[in-house]
Structures are given as C-alpha cells and as structure tokens.
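Many introductory courses stop at the sequence. We go one step further.
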Amino acid sequence: MGHVYAKATLVDRVGDSHRFVARGMAPRVPSLAPGGGCAALPAALADLEAGTGRPIADGEGRPIEPERFGAGVDAVAGVTSVLSPLKAALCYLHADDSLRYAEGALRSIPSQVTARLSGAQVEARREGFAQFAQTIRDDPPHLFLLVGGGDVKPNRGVIAMAEALAVAATLLRPAERPVLLYAGPLEFRQAVVGAVGERLTVRMADNPAPDGKAASVGSLCRELDVLHLALLGDEAGDMEGLWQACSGRVMSVGQAMLRAYSQRDVDVLAADLGAEQTVLVCTGPGRVLVERECGVGQGADSLLARLGAPTVSRWMSPLEDAEALLGAWALNRRVRPWTRARSAVEAEMELAFTREALRAALKSAATAWPDKRDYPDPLPPKVDMVVGSGAAIGGSYALPQSALALIDGLQPVGVCRLALDRGNLGASLGALAELNPQAVLSVLERDGVQVLGTLIAPVGQSRPGREVAHVSLTVAGQEPEELRVEAGELVRWPLPPGVTGQAVVRPARGYDVGAGAGQGLEIEVEGGPLGVILDGRGRPLEVPVNPADRVQALRRWSAALEAH
C-alpha cells in the first residue's frame, strides 16, 4: 500500500521454484480514485484477477485463504508506507550512546520527536520538567521512549524517570496517554512497570547500548515498527481493509526490504525511492532509514525547499529560470505524483531529484546508523551489492540512466555489484519472508533483482587527468585486458550477463578500493548489461562548480554509460 497506488502481487510455484506471476494496481490518490482511495485494495485485487483469469478475492473483495479448488492463495501479507509519522517524546538519562542509538532507531520509521526529557530535568524537578509536561499536554505524543544506561552497571535513575512520566501522563485523558516503550537496563524492567502502575501501557525492547561498546538496535527498531503500525494503523482510510485482508500480517516498507534482501547471503545496500519518502536498508548490520518528505512525488517540493534549486539543478543542463521550472515541476508532482516525464527537460529534472533524494537519505543514514564508518561521511558502508528500486529509478528509464542516477546518488565505494529491482518486488514480498523465505529468495533471484554489472569505485580525490587505478581483467579462455582510469572519468568495460572474470585492481597512492589506501585487490567481478564500470570521479563525488566544466563532465559521464 503506497502513497499513490495499491498493488496486489501474486507469486506461485512454477515447476520446482516460486516465480512472480502478475500484479494488479489501483490508484489511491483522490483525484484518480473516487472516495479517497478507500476501495483501492479491492480494486487492485480485481485488476489482478482480470490479468490472470484466476479467482483470488471473495464477494467482499478479500483474498480467499487458503487456496481451494484453484481459487485464492495459501498466504497473504501486506506492506505499507502510508502511515503518518509517529510522534515520540524521547526520554533519556544522559546524552550518551543510548540516546544516540535511540535517535537513530526512531529514524527507521516515519517519526517526529515532539518533546525531550533528560535525567537532569527530572532530578532538578524544576522548569525543565514543567515545560515537558506542558508540551505533551498541548500535543500528546503517541509514544514515550525511555532509554539510559548500560546493563552492566545500571543506573536507577531510569526508574525515577518512569515515575515522572507516569505523573506527566495524568495531565492527559486516558485515551490520549502515550505508550511507554522502555529500552533501558534489563534489570529494571519490572521496577519500571511497577513505577507507572496502570497509568501507562508499557512495552519492552532490548537496551540499544547494553555494554557501552557496540550498538544493539535491532530489537528497538522492530518494536518501533510494530507500535507505529498499531498506533497509527487506523488513521489511513484503507488500512483497516489491509489488516483484514492480510490477517494482521502487515509491516512497513523498510522492515519488508530488510527481510527480503537479508535472504541473500551477501551484504546489500538497497534504496527504495518513493513518491513521499526514500528508504535505505543495509542488511549486514540490519539497518533501516526512512527519510520523510524526500521523494519524487508528494515529497518533491519539500526536498526542493530543503536543498535549494542550485543543488538540484547542478545535475541538469543549463536552463533559463531553472528555479521557477524546478518549483513548478515539484509542485505538479505533489498534486499529480503519478505523472512521468514527457520531455527531455522533465526527465533531467526527475533524475536530478532522484540523485538528490538518494543523497539526502544517505546523509541522514550517516548520523542515524551507529556502526563504525569505513570511510568519511557521507559515504555508504562497503557492501557486496547495491540495489535500487522505485518507479523513478527502477522502471521509468533505460538501464544506463538508472545506473548513473543510482551511482551518483548513493556513491557506492570499493567493488560491488549494481542491480535494479525494476518490479519493486523486494518491498512487496518482504512481509512473506517469515512465512516462506525460500519463495521470496527464489522470486528475487529469478524475477526481481537484475544485476547490471560490477562497479569499481576507488575512494579518494585527485586532479583531473591523473591515474586513479590500473585494472587487469581476466576471463576464462581469453587474454587478460588492461585498463587505466583517470580522475574525473567513467569507463565502461563490456562483460556480458552470466560471465564472471577475475579483476586485479591497483589503486594509485591515496586511493582505496577496499583493501586500504594504496593497497591492491584481486576480486571476482560479475558481468551484466553494463559490464564493469570503473568510476574514477572520486569519493565523495563532487560535481564541478564552473558551469562550463560541469556541463562537459555531465555529458562525458552520460556518454560513458550511453545514458542518453
């Protein structure tokens, strides 16, 4: 269930594996769907039935479950991105790692921190607490998130904070009182429950900083996702139908993507660029980031207001009155998010917004994800594969255009495979991963993820024209090929789909391809429609400031991948 469309995806066993069969769609936006889109889910199921000739829904428009005599399906699960932000009051003992990790965990769902309360304010019992109490009275949050201290030497101050929150909650009517999510020291769980009595509902999550060393935010992120769905799931007009159709098996896009791509035995950085938000997932450490008001539909004008026209237009050919044109385009997308580019100029604008939405999400992930950084901000972590999805990047443009936008936006580092999920199946199928993980993996590998090739992107900076790296590529049965890449350039090296080769990468002094600055690397590379892409533009990737140089660079980069 997305901001623009409701989609119904059918997966079935074909031979000895599961495959994608068909998808039905129906609009949710009021201008396309009378009634505000409340009938979008039954309409999407009807569209799926029309496309497959297979009875799927009953007379009330709900999926038939389990399958009987060729009608219905064996399991149904749902994914949604339409819920409003969860309003949270963040309560913490000290400004330490537990607070930082809690702030990052809140970024894994659409959320807004509307109030803060520190241990010092509770201990002082003065203006700080009074101001907090007044804030939550004026704008009641959905959630109190309470963190503080490690499990090894727990601080009893969290119990006093729980008591203070219970007192503050008495200012609200019982129906308005937030849920208390406690993610503090394990030893004090029962004490916290006793401190609030019957005044607050209490939920538990693991301490995000149990030993003061490594972050452990997975439990907190999952509990936040569950609470977000439970507390705000009734606000969207068609969510009740989704809950019923899926027998309660509903999760967010971020958690669905994490589960889907975690089925692969590789580290994946996946980005889903939506109409209103951009979602990033990194499967290795199990991280999710949701960047609100950062899309190419309803989120475009907010993104433009945040970044400014010069930042977005740097990816475009020079235009007279570019600021006005970008503003008009973004406003039109807010009103008509389903539209697609109808001219070369509109395509340039959409791809420019695509790049900047990915960059904005990546910048937020650098602060929200608590993991040790391999490279300076805002570069992403080293991964084995980068996957892009969403209509603007996965389905609307030719492969070279989509690949270049993905590279420019996420700035992958070292050596990794590039891929697109053109059918957005990762987000759609993630909710089924618990029910049938092998089916999800089978569909993703056969019908979902299309590997475009391998990217080699050294981290470092140098003047244009200087050698960045020397690469030797050996394919079985062929003579080795040698290639050097210069600073500021992109080079595409053909390597067909299904073919692998052995690459020896020797970076120039000061450049790092994953083995350390100046250290060589021997690694297997996989072919694809775009073969092997050598990116000598440096990391972080910067666009030339001089307009003439910038235009020339953009044209060279586009021509290198035939992205025109």
